[in-house]
Design brief:
It is built from five helices and five strands, in the order βββαββαααα. With about 130 residues, it is an alpha+beta fold. Strands 4-3-2-1-5 form a five-stranded antiparallel sheet.
């Protein structure tokens, strides 16, 4: 059964546009295709603006706010329910963090990673070879 409804308080990931990759909260529903979202800006870097629902990926998390809640109320609700902490513990958030970490790696970091992977593969091959004898 579908449980991720577009509703005020729903935490979402922006998938397209200048804020892509940032988290936001649905504040109000404008019409069938557009919603008003807010970060809040100090927490996630997303200002309050209108956005098409197509550009959002809804999460399982929802904070308890009413339609059109102000930024202060939103911050208080997010802190009370520990929504951002719960989000950072999910596999989805960890995967995004790992992807960002890899994108920001330097050339030397990539080289060290390659060497470590080769070393691990060599040890695994040695263990498998011993097991076959």
């Amino acid at each position: 059964m579908f449980t991720r409804f577009v509703e005020p308080g729903r935490l979402a990931l922006i998938t397209y546009g200048p804020c892509a990759g940032k988290m936001c909260t649905v504040i109000d529903i404008v019409d069938q295709k557009r919603v008003v979202v807010d970060g809040p800006e100090q927490l996630t870097g997303v200002r309050r603006h209108m956005m098409p629902v197509k550009r959002l990926s809804l999460t399982d998390f929802k904070c308890s706010i009413f339609r059109g809640a102000r930024e202060k109320q939103l911050k208080a609700a997010l802190e009370k329910d520990e929504i951002m902490k719960k989000w950072s513990e999910t596999a989805w958030a960890k995967k995004l963090a790992a992807k960002e970490f890899r994108a920001n790696m330097s050339d030397f970091d990539r080289h060290k990673l390659m060497v470590a992977r080769k070393k691990r593969a060599k040890e695994v091959r040695g263990v498998i070879k011993k097991g076959k004898k």
